[in-house]
Amino acid sequence: MDIKVLGTGCANCKATIALIDQIAQAKGVTVKLEKMEELRDIMAYGVMSTPGVVINGKVVHAGGIPSRDKIEHWLAAA
């Protein structure tokens, strides 16, 4: 599962990456987690509010830290 977190380095972006990584490890799900900080790259996904989360090329979240339940749902669908 390829997961990208889009954000310019804000605290919510860092928290989102940490939360996804924590849950993936707890669930034993192998993910390729990548942080994208370049505004041009973020805009290419059409994300106007960060953090944004892209899974396997599809934007699944934008704006605010996603909930634990939401992340678990994403990982369960892997």
- Write down the overall geometry: globular
Average pLDDT score: 95
Reported by name, the CATH topology is Glutaredoxin
> What is the beta-strand fraction?
15-25%
Report how far apart the termini are: 7 Å
Q: Unreliable stretches, pLDDT < 50, 5 or more residues?
A: none
The structure class reads: alpha+beta
Write down the secondary-structure element order: EHEHEEH
Strand order of the largest sheet: 2-1-3-4
CATH class: Alpha Beta
Give the number of DSSP strands. Answer: 4
The CATH superfamily turns out to be Glutaredoxin
Alpha-carbon Rg, integer: 11 Å
Write the layout of secondary structure elements.
Elements: E1 2-6, H1 11-27, E2 32-36, H2 39-44, E3 52-55, E4 58-62, H3 68-76
Parallel strand pairs: 1-2
Antiparallel strand pairs: 1-3, 3-4
Helix pairs in contact: 1-3
